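Case study.
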Amino acid sequence: MSVGLQRLREEPDLIRRGALDKGEDAALVDRALELDARRRRLLGEADGLKAERNRASKQVGDAIRGGAAPDGPRVAAFRAASVAAGERIAALDAEAAAVEAELEDALLRIPNPADPDVPVGDADANVVVRTWGDLLPRAGAGPDGPWERKPHWDVAEALGIIDLERGAKVAGSGFPVYRGAGAALQRALIDFFLGVHTRENGFTEIWPPAVVNAASARGTGQIPDKEDQMYVITRDELYLVPTAEVPVTNLHRDEIFEPDALPVRYAAYTPCFRREAGAAGKDTRGILRVHQFDKVEMVLFERPEASGEALEWMTGRAEDLLRRLGLAYRVLLMATRDMGFVQAKKYDLEVWAPGVERWLEVSSCSNFRDYQARRMAIRYRPAPGAKPELVHTLNGSGLALARVVAAILETYQRPDGSVVVPEPLRATLGTDTLLPS
RNA sequence: GGAGAGGUGCCGGAGUGGUUGAUCGGAGCGGUCUUGAAAACCGCAGGGCCUUCGCGCCCCGUGGGUUCGAAUCCCACCCUCUCCGCCA
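After joint prediction, the assembly is written out as follows.
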């Protein structure tokens, strides 16, 4: 994942500005430029010598075929020339490789510049773009007088649908067990999301592996950026996926799309595994922050000129799901220092959870422009026979289940402890109300 | 897990040390012909690097090695296929 060298050379100021806006070190830009110049100098010199060596080698062959003695003086001279060039080439190549490694390292630490319309600043600068639905207060007015909405963990316990203790027993804390209607609710949500995406939004459904190899983890930047967030199966050198983004984006690694192939739009369900290292003690109750959760992810490959519009569209698709579930939410345009290293523009969708009176992040929709594509070498041909160019990649949750479940339980609970099932899920669940056990 | 075969360009498929970065076929693109299309014929046609654009350099699964010279020889690893074993 990196900015392009060509762009770095042509617009160093823009890249520098982008790094500063994201709170990163802009000096790396100059470091990279310097390394790039050195690398090109070394490469040029080495290439010249290689041409010499190739010529000498060819002369050996020509001389022998022309009747010269294979061990005669003429042939020996050509051989010597080739060997001499070879020695210098080896030295230059070694140096070039070292410089290139340094350059790569510098490039990797230069962030993707944010789009011009992204607010500059930290979380305070995030912009609420829109809000939808009624923000229910914790205190409600029921048929038998005032009542207090409960947090989802209390609702879930009364219904007997989430078993955190037994999850901790069989796997560990942060691995919830969904039971009965709770399990069916998971299945219903996954089916609802995928159904809308495939039948109405034109996505192709993908059911990818839940583990990836090191090359794939590197492709989307999990290695080295977020390595300690992933569960690793060391014996087989595999990583449990933290999101479907990883396997699905890597589907087209090192590929070239033909002119009429784009856009390619995938919707994929996977369980997601996250170690949540460094988040100990945060959101420990309920299912707001867990090590395993379920998510349907949207992954888009777009032509560069279409990616800006595609982000708005994709965000709209995620919002549509929340509306149909009748959950109040807001859309945040994330500011430069709160959006992440690799995103060019990002919207977060936060659902309102009246039981805990908090906004819960249930989707994050990002445009990476060509930043991810460069690292994974995902390209497209603008026209038949034309030179390949990098595609733009985007992805967004549509949606993440655990927090949606929390919001449903808190939004649709009733004073008697029952929970109304949102309309789109009723057919699968076979009921319109969940009753306390 | 055991045995065998193989990994070459968009696909198929040649090539086992010296203009082979790669024969050939198909698909593709451009053209001729045609009212149009098909067919036929001609031509173009892999990816990347370098502000030296050059009959320049690198790439035939990946990484090393041998050699003046490697797609071709050697070693390791990865992957695919077939058979056997095991198994949801």
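Observations recorded in class. Residues 9, 40, 43-44, 46-48, 50-51, 53-54, 56-62, 64-65, 75-76, 78-83, 86, 256, 258, 384-385, 388 of chain A lie near RNA strand B (CB under 10 Å from a C1'). Chain A has two domains: 5-108, 123-434. We will return to this complex in the next lecture.
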